[in-house]
Each structure stands twice: as C-alpha cells, then as structure tokens.
C-alpha cells in the first residue's frame, strides 16, 4: 500500500487512512485500487466488525487528483465518451464498496472533504469531524453538475432537500460547527481527539453481536429506498426473525438474565 495505510486501533476495528497529504489525499487509480483491496480484506477479516475511514494532513480527501488521476491512460485507445463512462463507472465501484461493506463505516473527517471526498464521507454510516473539518460539493465549481457519486441521493436524506440543494447549487464550504448543526456531522471534537473518538464510537458498536451489527447497517441502508413504511417494516420483521434464532441472540438473552456481559462468537461476511 503506497497511497493509504491500514492499521488496527482496536481488536475489532480496522482503520483505512488516505495517505497522500501533499496532494490533499486526492484519488488516483492506485488509491482507488488500494482502498478497494483494504475494504475487501476488512470484509473478510473475522475479527473486524467496524471500519474507520480517515485521512492524513490537512484534508480528509479533495476528490480526484486532476493531474495524476490516471484517466488519460485509462481512456487511451478508447472512444473518448465510452472511455470516460468506463472511468466513471470504475470510480463508482469505490463508493459502492464503502456502502455495501458488511461492516459499518465511520468517516473521521480530519480536514477538507471536497468533491469526491465529500461524496466518500456521505457513504459512511456515521461522520465525526475535528474542528478543521469542512465540506464542499465542489463539482459545480469545475463546470460540472453538483450531483455526482451519490451526492444527490444521500445528501437530501441527511440534511433535507432545501439545504442539500443549496450546497449542490452554490458549492459553498460548510465548516465543522455548521455541519454538526445541520446533521452532516454526528459530532465535532477537537482535532487532537478525533482518532480516539472514532475508535470509541466504533467500540460502542462492535460490542454488539456481529450479525446484529451487519443487519442493522444493511436494513437501515436498504430502507432508505423503501417505497412505503409497510415494506420497510416487512424487511425489518423478516430480518429480526433470522436474528432471534442466532447463537449470539440466545447468548445476549442469557447474559441479560445472568447479569453479565455477553460473549459473542458469530460474524458475518459477504
């Protein structure tokens, strides 16, 4: 791994850190490949129950590296339209991988999250930020639609259509305090406490049954697309019927009766 680092700040947690600080942690083809590989390894790790995604330096991620993205090599000898569509589809695989990982993802936003970096943070289930965290849609500043990489789907669901439209149409920057106020960040902590807080938050989730944790992520995300309350409740009910018969569910009930902490053994991978 040359553009990211991967470590384990806790027994059940894997942290993926974008590590191109001199380039504001912008994406290149290599970076995308390395993050995808790290996500695959985390999803296949029996011990891993949560993922932290963060950056080094003064940026979380500034989006695609316009100088070193690799897109020119990608579209070489291809029809220019078809080549760029293939490139766009390739980038999308990264964002889908974050969303579809069976492990919940926490974005620990250490600085600027712009354009594709903004979209990447939106893919996480939870976002916490240091005081230096800031967000900007960014796409519209480059003469592009402000609707990109899932932003127009997730952002209105997080902060409401009116606020989302403002950010996508103006491209203005939102600082950490405003981001917390409007619901873009779950919480803001001093910069020096960001990583410790991300680990504490992850540990508060990974203390639970791996199956229950994975199912909560999956159903919560699936029901963002539910066509009705009735359909959402049907999916919840059927999943709960599976969960109640797992060994970890039986262990949780037994531990409650015996007034002790449960010892979970299950896990779930894709």
Outline the structure in words.
This protein has 270 residues and is of the alpha/beta class. Strands 1-2-3-5-7-10 form a six-stranded mixed beta sheet, sandwiched between helices. The chain has a four-stranded mixed beta sheet with strand order 4-6-8-9. A hairpin with a 2-residue loop joins strand 1 and strand 2.
List the helices and strands and how they pair.
Elements: E1 4-10, E2 13-18, H1 29-43, E3 50-55, E4 59-61, H2 71-75, H3 80-100, E5 105-109, E6 112-114, H4 116-123, E7 126-130, E8 134-136, H5 151-159, H6 161-170, E9 174-175, H7 176-182, E10 187-189, H8 194-206, H9 210-222, H10 229-243, H11 247-258
Parallel strand pairs: 2-3, 3-5, 4-6, 5-7, 6-8, 7-10
Antiparallel strand pairs: 1-2, 8-9
Helix pairs in contact: 1-3, 5-6, 9-10
Which tags fit this structure?
single chain; 270 residues; alpha/beta; 6-stranded mixed beta sheet; 4-stranded mixed beta sheet; 11 helices
């Amino acid at each position: 791994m040359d553009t990211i680092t991967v470590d384990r700040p806790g027994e059940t947690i894997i942290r993926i850190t974008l590590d191109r600080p001199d380039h504001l942690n912008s994406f290149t083809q290599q970076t995308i490949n390395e993050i995808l590989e790290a996500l695959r390894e985390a999803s296949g790790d029996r011990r891993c129950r949560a993922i932290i995604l963060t950056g080094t330096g003064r940026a979380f991620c500034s989006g695609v590296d316009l100088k070193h993205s690799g897109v020119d090599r990608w579209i070489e000898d291809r029809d220019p339209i078809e080549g760029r569509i293939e490139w766009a589809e390739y980038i999308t695989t990264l964002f889908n991988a974050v969303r579809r990982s069976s492990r919940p993802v926490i974005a620990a936003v250490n600085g600027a999250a712009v354009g594709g970096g903004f979209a990447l943070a939106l893919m996480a289930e939870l976002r916490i930020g240091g005081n230096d965290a800031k967000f900007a849609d960014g796409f519209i500043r480059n003469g592009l639609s402000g609707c990109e990489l899932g932003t127009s789907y997730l952002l209105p669901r997080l902060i409401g259509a009116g606020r989302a439209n403002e950010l996508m149409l103006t491209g203005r920057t939102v600082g950490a305090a405003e981001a917390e106020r409007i619901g873009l960040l779950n919480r803001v902590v001093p910069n020096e406490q960001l990583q410790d807080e991300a680990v504490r938050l992850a540990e508060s989730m990974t203390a639970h049954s791996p199956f229950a944790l994975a199912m909560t992520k999956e159903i919560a995300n699936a029901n963002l697309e539910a066509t009705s309350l009735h359909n959402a409740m049907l999916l919840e009910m059927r999943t709960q019927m599976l969960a109640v018969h797992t060994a970890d569910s039986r262990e949780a009930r037994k531990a409650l009766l015996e007034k002790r902490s449960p010892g979970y053994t299950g896990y779930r991978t894709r």
